[in-house]
Structure formats: C-alpha cells, structure tokens
Amino acid sequence: MKRQKRDKLQRAHSKGFNAALHGQSKELCPYEEVNAKEEWLGGWREGREQFQNTGMKNYM
Question: What pLDDT digit, counting tens, does each position of 29-49 carry?
Fold first, then answer.
C-alpha cells in the first residue's frame, strides 16, 4: 500500500507557521503559485501571532 503525501496547501500552511515561529520574515515565502503562497502566509500569520502571544521571542 502506498503512503499518501499530505496536501500541498496543508504543507505550505505548516511551513509558513514554522517559519514565523523561527522569526523569519514573510518576505521569505518560497512559493510562487498564488494558492500555496496564500496558505503559507496564512500559516505565517498564525505562527507570528503565537510567537508574540506566548513570549517565545524571549527565547530566540
């Protein structure tokens, strides 16, 4: 049985979230395709909000 890959948009969202948690700028979005870029930026916004609310910025 083949293992199914995660949805590309879900993966883009997750990568954007992780990028924000590591303090990366949203300008570093690696996606060119509009839908993937929107998902990455959505994840980045969520990650940035969590980064700021949880005080993780103090550890980086």
Answer: 999 999 999 999 999 999 999
